[in-house]
Every structure is written in structure tokens, then in C-alpha cells.
Automatic annotation (TrEMBL):
Keywords, comma-separated and alphabetical: Membrane, Transmembrane, Transmembrane helix
Entry protein name: Dolichyl-phosphate-mannose-protein mannosyltransferase
Coiled coil location: none
Membrane-spanning segments: 7-25, 69-86, 98-116, 122-140, 149-165, 177-204, 225-242, 281-306, 327-347, 353-375, 382-407
UniProt source species: Cyclobacterium lianum
């Protein structure tokens, strides 16, 4: 491996560890920390790692309302917090942000190795990593998201270990794949797609190839070891299974099919219920939040895969590279189809499916590789040259535009939309995670350095972000429950009912009061501070 590639990844690691401190606190982080505490205390009560540690909760994990969440990452984060003796929320969540980023960085390195082993090209592998890392929504979330980014990482690791598992010469493949799949399942029950993919592919491979008795016995042995390690690791890493393995698993599976979140969201200019989302919700959200060049290469990769399926048919399960491509396609499409089939409740954009993004990028790299091969064969034709120049020009413009966005609108990369979104303020929710609050509250504190600031919001995200400020700063931020008691109203333009949305559209109070300032990304607002009274 070239030393300069290692330098690039080390520079990315250093760069990311510096940037994580710029991000605010997302909606899920405090409750995810609580999940980790509940799980850690359950394990600690059983094994006594910290015998003198008092419990912070009265919850019992096997009966905990949110036990369907994967808690391994949160549990480890809380354990590390205790080990390091961190006693303030500001550093607690900065540590968690750092853990999320380092895990994502490791996954990006593994993703590079996957692409390099498949395409035998450093530029192609690096292009794939850049598409993964620099897609603005993924870039932003990789700095803080404690739910969706770890799952994305476990899926990348599972793909890597799948490749080693189906390679009959890799003696550690079954163990590593069992561990990676257990991490994915323990993070979210959708991780069960990996045993299905791996065993389904292997079964098709052996049947279609008409394997010899010796090969059948070899893979029977490997599969037995894989399943054994999968069950053991899943049980070990998912404490909710310890008292009732079957009941705990079924509870999580049923929760995944119909998650308990019932509200309305702004989608394509209309308020829609989370339980009544149209089938095109996810495809549209992916299309309007992914840079155009990446979107086009993903579509080209999908076209190549469907062409290969038509052209090669059964060879998809025999030839190594085609088989790897087929599994990547399955990892991307099976969860999408499951969402439609089960009518799963989704919200906050498509973040619940971020884990399919690396596989869409993989297919995009396949599309690029196929185009390069076609160009090499037919580059003497003028139309091919013109087409290639046009594509390179479009890609250069879009990559430059995306890089400009990442820098100019830091740390608000998570609210990126491309031009396909149209009027963003009219059509879509923006900062559903509340990451703009840190900058908004910081600006407010600077504008009124000696004032106590009474603030009214319609969600808890403002209060949550008090935890990233010093005690002196947080003491000046007073959140009240009635707008009549407030001097400022802060809105993210996130509405959870038709009534709230109508108030905004009609410019009712408090939206009709003068604006103190707004945070804008491109031409749309992500947060606005409205002055209700003179401070």
C-alpha cells in the first residue's frame, strides 16, 4: 500500500478529531447516553466491575421500554466515561463525538481495502472513500450521530468479513464474520440481513457450481463455525437477550417493523404522518440530499448490476467479483425493500438507512470502473470522447461545489440539499437534529453578554444544547414554557402537527415578531431567533 495513502488517512483522522468539537448536541444523544447507562448498570449489577458505583437510574434492562435499541456502543462510551473520570456533560458528549468519528474513520479505511481488493486501483478505491466521506450529510453525521453512524460502520465491517468468510482459504473468516454480524445485529436488529445475505449467497454458490463433496464439507464446517460464533457473540454483546433470548429478539424485530413514533413531517410541501409515508419517501430523500455526481455514478452502478444480472445470470454466484458485487447490491436493496414491505415508520429524513450508503457508493465505483473499461475500448470514437469530457466537467464542477459547501457551511453539513430539492424551505424539514442550536445560542450570548436570556422553544433541543456550554454560559440561558415569559423565540421550522404548520404559514404569533437573526445554509434557514421583548 502506498505510504501517501496512509498519510491521507492519518491526516483525515487528525482533521476529524479537531473538527468534532465544533458540533452541537443532537436530539438523540442524551437519551442514547441513558440507554447506555441502563445497559451498563445491568451488566455491572451482574458482574460487579464497579462494586461501589451507585446506579443513576431505576430502570431494569429486560423490562426497559427502549430495550430494543442496540446499546453496545452507548454502554462502552459510558464505561470509558467512568474510566476517564469525566464529570461534566460538555466533555462527556465531546468524548462520544470523538468515538463516533474514530469508528467512522476506521470504517472508511476498511472500505478502502474492500474497494482496492475488488478493483485493484488506488484511484478508484480512494474515489469511493471520498464519495463516502465527503457526502455532506454523512460527513456531518460522522462527527456526532451515535445511532446511525455506528450501524453504518458495522455494516462495512460485516461486508469485509463476509468476503473473508466465503473465501475458503481464510481460516479466521467464520470467526470475524460472526463477530461483525453480531455487532451489526446488536446495534440494530436490521443487522440480521447479513446472515441472510452471506448464507443465501453461499448456498446459491454451492448449488449452482455443483461443488464437490470435499468443498461441500469444507463450507459446511465453515458455516457451522460461523453460526456458532454468530450466536455466541450476539448473545454476549446484546445484554437484553441474557434473560430471554427469543423474547428479546422478537421484541426488537417487531419494534423495527413498526417503530413507536407518531407525528407529522414536512415532505414535498405537505405535512404527512410518519405512519402513512408514501413509498417514494426514501428514494426522494436520497436523491435530494446526495451530491449530483455521486447520485449519477450510483445510478450507473445500479444499471451495470442489472445489466450483469441479465448478461451473466448464474455466474453472479460463481465468479468471485460478480458475487461480491451481488452481495453489495443485496445489502443496499434488501433493507429498502423491507422498509416498503413492512411499512416501517421512518422520520428525520433517511438517516435510519444511512447504513446502505456505503453499498450504493460501492456500486457507484463499479459504474465508474465499467465506464473506464468501455472508454479504453472505444476511445477512438468521437462521441465517446465528448461524453467522457462532459462527465469529467460535470464531476469537477459538482465536486468543487460540494467541497465549497463543506467548508463554507461548517458545521451545518447535515442539512445539505442539492438543486433537485427545489424550494427547500417549502418542501422539506431541515435541521431535525437541532445541531444549529449551538451556534444560535452562542450568537445570542455574544449579543447580550451581561443578560439573562429567557427563551421559548417548541422542543427540548435548546435545553439539550445547554450541556455543551460552560456552567456560567448555561446559567444565562433560561428556557421557559410560555412565550409570554420569554424574550426570544427560537424555531428550527420543524413542525409536528398540522396546527403548528398552519400557525407558521399564517405568520401567527410568535412568528410575526421581529427577527433577531437567522442561521442560513445556502438560501434556506435552519434556525431563526425571534425577539419577543427587548432584553
Amino acid at each position: 500500500m502506498n505510504n501517501w495513502i496512509k498519510f491521507v488517512f492519518l491526516a483525515y483522522l487528525l482533521f476529524g478529531t479537531i473538527l468534532v468539537g465544533d458540533y452541537g448536541l443532537s436530539m438523540d444523544e442524551p437519551v442514547q447516553r441513558k440507554h447506555g447507562i441502563v445497559a451498563f448498570e445491568y451488566v455491572n449489577d451482574l458482574f460487579g466491575f464497579y462494586p461501589d458505583l451507585p446506579n443513576l437510574t431505576v430502570e431494569h434492562l429486560p423490562s426497559y421500554d427502549h430495550r430494543d435499541y442496540g446499546m453496545l456502543f452507548q454502554m462502552v462510551a459510558y464505561g470509558l466515561e467512568l474510566t476517564m473520570g469525566i464529570d461534566n456533560t460538555r466533555d462527556v458528549f465531546r468524548l462520544r463525538h470523538l468515538m463516533v468519528f474514530v469508528l467512522f474513520w476506521a470504517a472508511s479505511w476498511v472500505f478502502f481495502r474492500i474497494l482496492y481488493s475488488r478493483f485493484h486501483s488506488v484511484p478508484l478505491a480512494l474515489a469511493g472513500v471520498l464519495m463516502l466521506v465527503l457526502s455532506p450529510r454523512i460527513f456531518g453525521n460522522s462527527m456526532y450521530n451515535p445511532k446511525d453512524i455506528p450501524l453504518l460502520c458495522w455494516f462495512v465491517f460485516a461486508f469485509y468479513t463476509h468476503i473473508r468468510f466465503v473465501d475458503g482459504k481464510d481460516r479466521y473468516g467464520p470467526v470475524l464474520h460472526g463477530l461483525a454480524c453480531a455487532l451489526a445485529i446488536g446495534s440494530r436488529i436490521v443487522g440480521v440481513v447479513w446472515p441472510v445475505l452471506s448464507l443465501g449467497y453461499l448456498l446459491c454458490h454451492l448449488i449452482i457450481q455443483r461443488s464437490s463433496k470435499a468443498e461441500l464439507l469444507l463450507y459446511l464446517k465453515r458455516t457451522t463455525f460461523y453460526l456458532l460464533f454468530l450466536l455466541v457473540f450476539t448473545f454476549m454483546l446484546w445484554p437484553v437477550l441474557w434473560e430471554d433470548p427469543i423474547g428479546g429478539f422478537l421484541h426488537s424485530f417487531n419494534s423495527m417493523k413498526q417503530f413507536r413514533w407518531y407525528a407529522e413531517m414536512l415532505y414535498l410541501g405537505e405535512m404527512v404522518r410518519s405512519t402513512e409515508l408514501p413509498w417514494h419517501y426514501i428514494p426522494v430523500l436520497i436523491s435530494v440530499t446526495t451530491p449530483l455526481t455521486i447520485l449519477l455514478v450510483i445510478l450507473s452502478g445500479l444499471f451495470v448490476m442489472f445489466r450483469n444480472a441479465w448478461k451473466y445470470k448464474q455466474k453472479l454466484f460463481i465468479q468471485t467479483n460478480l458475487g461480491q458485487d451481488t452481495v453489495a447490491l443485496g445489502a443496499a436493496l434488501i433493507p429498502l425493500m423491507a422498509v416498503v414491505l413492512f411499512g416501517s415508520v421512518l422520520y428525520n429524513g433517511w438517516r435510519h438507512l444511512y447504513f446502505i450508503y456505503p453499498f450504493l457508493v460501492y456500486l457507484g465505483v463499479l459504474g465508474i470502473d465499467t465506464f473506464i473499461n468501455v472508454y479504453r475500448r472505444k476511445r477512438s470514437k468521437l462521441i465517446v470522447k465528448v461524453f467522457a469530457v462532459g462527465l469529467i466537467g460535470l464531476a469537477t464542477w459538482d465536486i468543487g461545489n460540494t467541497a465549497y459547501f463543506l467548508v463554507k457551511y461548517h458545521p451545518h453539513q447535515s442539512v445539505y440539499f442539492n438543486f433537485l430539492a427545489g424550494d427547500v424551505e417549502k418542501n422539506f424539514e431541515r435541521d431535525y437534529y437541532g445541531m444549529s442550536y449551538k451556534e444560535g445560542l452562542t450568537q445570542l450570548l455574544k449579543r447580550y453578554p451581561d443578560k439573562i436570556l429567557q427563551i421559548y422553544t417548541r422542543n427540548v433541543l435548546g435545553k439539550i444544547n445547554m450541556m455543551v456550554f460552560t456552567k456560567q454560559e448555561a446559567a444565562r440561558l433560561v428556557f421557559v414554557n410560555n412565550p409570554k415569559d420569554a424574550k426570544f423565540f427560537i424555531t428550527l421550522f420543524i413542525f409536528r402537527s398540522q396546527k403548528e404548520y398552519r400557525e407558521f404559514k399564517r405568520n401567527d404569533y410568535p412568528f410575526n415578531q421581529p427577527s433577531e437573526f437567522a442561521i442560513r445554509v445556502k438560501d434556506y434557514k435552519t434556525l431563526e431567533v425571534i425577539r419577543l421583548k427587548d432584553p
